[in-house]
Automatic annotation (TrEMBL):
Official protein name in the record: Acyl-CoA dehydrogenase
Cofactor: FAD
Alphabetical UniProt keywords: FAD, Flavoprotein, Oxidoreductase
Domain annotation Acyl-CoA dehydrogenase/oxidase N-terminal: ranges: 13-103
Keyword Aminoacyl-tRNA synthetase annotated: no
UniProt superkingdom: Bacteria
SUPFAM superfamilies: Acyl-CoA dehydrogenase C-terminal domain-like (SSF47203), Acyl-CoA dehydrogenase NM domain-like (SSF56645)
Keyword Zinc-finger: no
Length: 366
């Protein structure tokens, strides 16, 4: 792990601003909130509309391979740019497999030197996911599966992205295995966040190819990348819900007054704004650390611990301050709340990351 005393810029570059505008415009046209809300009632986890949005990200904007070298079909940019995309996906609560495929699976494939797989993921020919429980820190599987003589057996529960995936990356012991989707049974389970659904993945003597051996370091790096980029999604969620709440409080009247004029509500919004300001700083720092390879484990855990709580606060206040309508199924506020709640469990809870952070900076638990 490298360290540096250079302070990175937490501001957005002009190019990042253009990227944000392009992604926001595409998502506004392909995944407006009312469309995402409707799709949560559909049985298919990856509807035709959602697939169109995904193809837009892949083909029209080319943002699936932003952090991938150009020689592998990517854009040769960095994880800073990917973080901008993640912010916009959070603002739109978009139901596309960007986190699981374009971030986690692609990062792991790059680290393992699986160039052919990387090219397939970047081109959109394949959609991947890492088969591990979504509500736990990213780790190699042990008791869940067995791998013998090229055959994989066992069940991994609560996997994100498997319903959309065409290829499965399965970390077992010190190896990462590549399994085609048709070799596994993917059973949907009831998901709290219906915009990123989970499933149980079962292998029954499935044919598996070894992508690489001695993969602990690559898996650890990917876990930090996933946490760092998920923090940007949480930031986008928090910003969108604060804006939604401010707009509503500026229009809703009660007892002849705009309810946003009540000082008690202003204080609550100020608290949310303060938490978002902190979240933006640590999310941007984590994205820069991911791009430069500097201090990433510490930055990822700091971002995960702060951004998870900020997104939860912002979405909870959004629901409550919208009053009765905020609690209805027809209003999109619950989409953000559920995504924030699920994100706070993904790849380690804020509490888990704070505990991990103590070890990384040599703090002694008392």
């Amino acid at each position: 792990m490298s360290t540096s005393t250079t302070v990175p810029s937490l501001l957005y570059s002009e190019d990042e601003g253009y990227l944000r505008d392009a992604v926001r415009a595409l998502l506004a046209g392909r995944t407006p909130l009312e469309t995402v809300l409707r799709r949560t009632d559909e049985a298919d986890a990856f509807t035709a509309d959602a697939q169109q949005a995904w193809r837009g990200l892949v083909d029209e904007l080319g943002v699936v391979g932003l952090a991938v070298p150009e020689e592998l079909g990517g854009a040769g940019a960095s994880w800073r740019e990917v973080a901008v995309v993640m912010e916009e996906l959070g603002r739109a609560v978009a139901d596309v497999p960007y986190l699981t495929s374009a971030v986690a699976a692609t990062s792991l494939a790059v680290q393992l030197g699986a160039d052919a797989l990387v090219c397939e993921l970047v081109s959109g020919e394949a959609i991947g996911t890492i088969v591990t429980p979504y509500g736990a820190p990213l780790r190699a599987l042990d008791a869940e599966v067995t791998y013998t003589d090229g055959k994989l057996s066992g069940t991994v529960r609560t996997v994100a992205g498997a319903l959309e995936a065409t290829v499965l990356l399965v970390p077992v012991g010190h190896q990462v295995l590549l399994v085609q989707r048709d070799q596994a049974t993917v059973e949907p389970v009831l998901s709290f966040d219906m915009t990123r659904r989970i499933s149980d993945v079962t292998f029954d003597q499935a044919t598996a190819a070894v992508l690489a051996d001695d993969t602990a370091e690559a898996l650890s790096w990917t876990a930090d990348i996933a946490c760092a980029l998920l923090a940007s999604e949480q930031l986008g969620i928090a910003e969108a819900t604060l804006e939604m709440t401010v707009e509503y409080l500026g229009q809703r009247r009660q007892f002849g007054r705009i309810i946003g004029s009540y000082q008690a509500l202003k204080h609550r919004l100020a608290d949310v704004w303060t938490e978002i300001a902190k979240a933006r700083a640590v999310a941007r720092y984590a994205a820069d650390c991911a791009a430069t390879g500097t201090d990433l484990p510490i930055a990822a855990s700091v971002a995960a611990s702060i951004c998870g709580d900020a997104a939860l606060l912002a979405t909870e206040e959004c629901v409550q301050l919208h009053g009765g309508i905020g609690f209805t199924w027809e209003h999109p506020a619950h989409l953000f709340l559920k995504r924030a709640r699920a994100d706070a469990l993904a790849y380690g809870t804020p509490t888990w990351h704070r505990t991990r952070l103590g070890g990384l900076v040599d703090l002694v638990a008392r």
